């Protein structure tokens, strides 16, 4: 085995995992040991990153670490199944709460990063699709970019955060793999593929929104066929076609960039933003209590 092969097999460090998860827009918790008293496995500054199904690095192992992981995952699950951004301080008496013989005391700061606020499922890597992906880059959205053609994605897509490129020759399989609540935009190079995608997306019934590029006459033709395929009026009414004001047939700018701007502007009010309370971060009273009672 070469030195390079050996490096590839090492466990991912907390800072590498944090960078990757932030870049991919996935939910995670950064756990930081902030105080120590007495005998403890690690010193202040030790960190680990926790997701719903993985752990990166360590705070020293033992029951105390498992309790930290459990507390982090409760916050990732949230009261309604969704993580909420925020911080909390966990206090561990290693001889009491954690049952460890070293008997020290530790405070751990849990910082919850809920991941991207929305998922955009984009079908089509043509001119409009490329402009949409570029415009979405600064937004806190995760973009799942699909195309059925080989080598359809530009080289620059490798460097864009929160972007996943997926070769998708089977429309039904691509739609089945989407997370519930995604916002879908269909703009492939092929009308037959467009219709198959809209059919599959409507059949799922759990997309947050659904847009289709094209003219009103295109949608009239699609609508008849989708109705004949069994989709009801309520479902069909949820499809936006044309997408955006620039593609609305009103004489506006029809360049790919203008259509992409209009489509993004149309999506912005549809994407929910997390509510912010008057108080954010740690509760000052709880922080004072933890530090005062256990720092000595």
From TrEMBL:
Domain XdhC Rossmann: 120-267
Gene3D superfamilies named among the record's database cross-references: NAD(P)-binding Rossmann-like Domain
A Pfam family of this chain: XdhC_C
Annotated spans, Disordered: 274-296
Domain XdhC- CoxI residue range list: 22-77
InterPro entries membership: MoCofactor_Util/Proc, NAD(P)-bd_dom_sf, Xanthine_DH_XdhC, XdhC_CoxI, XdhC_Rossmann_dom
Top-level lineage group: Bacteria
PANTHER family per UniProt: ALDEHYDE OXIDOREDUCTASE MOLYBDENUM COFACTOR ASSEMBLY PROTEIN, XANTHINE DEHYDROGENASE SUBUNIT A-RELATED
NCBIfam families documented for this protein: xanthine_xdhC (TIGR02964)
Protein known as: Xanthine dehydrogenase accessory protein XdhC
Provenance organism: Halomonas rhizosphaerae
């Amino acid at each position: 085995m070469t030195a390079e092969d050996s490096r590839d097999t090492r466990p991912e460090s907390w800072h590498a995992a944090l960078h990757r998860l932030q870049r991919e827009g996935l939910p995670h918790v950064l756990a930081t040991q902030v105080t120590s008293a007495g005998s403890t496995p690690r010193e202040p500054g030790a960190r680990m990153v926790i997701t719903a199904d993985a752990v990166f690095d360590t705070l020293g192992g033992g029951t105390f670490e498992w309790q930290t992981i459990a507390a982090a995952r409760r916050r990732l699950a949230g009261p309604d199944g969704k993580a909420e951004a925020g911080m909390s301080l966990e206090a561990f008496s290693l001889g009491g709460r954690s049952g460890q013989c070293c008997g020290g005391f530790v405070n751990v700061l849990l910082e919850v990063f809920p991941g991207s606020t929305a998922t955009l499922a984009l079908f089509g890597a043509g001119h409009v699709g490329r402009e949409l992906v570029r415009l979405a880059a600064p937004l806190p959205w995760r973009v799942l970019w699909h195309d059925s053609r080989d080598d359809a994605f530009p080289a620059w897509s490798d460097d864009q955060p929160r972007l996943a490129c997926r070769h998708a020759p089977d429309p039904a399989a691509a739609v089945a793999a989407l997370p519930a609540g995604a916002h879908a935009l269909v703009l492939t190079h092929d009308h037959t593929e467009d219709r198959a995608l809209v059919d599959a997306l409507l059949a799922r019934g759990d997309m947050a929104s659904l847009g289709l590029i094209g003219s009103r006459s295109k949608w009239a033709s699609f609508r008849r066929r989708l109705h004949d395929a069994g989709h009801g009026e309520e479902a069909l009414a949820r499809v936006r076609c044309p997408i955006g004001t620039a593609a609305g047939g009103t004489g506006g700018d029809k360049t790919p960039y203008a259509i992409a701007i209009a489509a993004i502007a149309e999506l912005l009010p549809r994407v929910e933003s997390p509510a912010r309370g008057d108080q954010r971060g740690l509760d000052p009273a709880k922080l004072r209590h933890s530090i005062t009672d256990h720092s000595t």
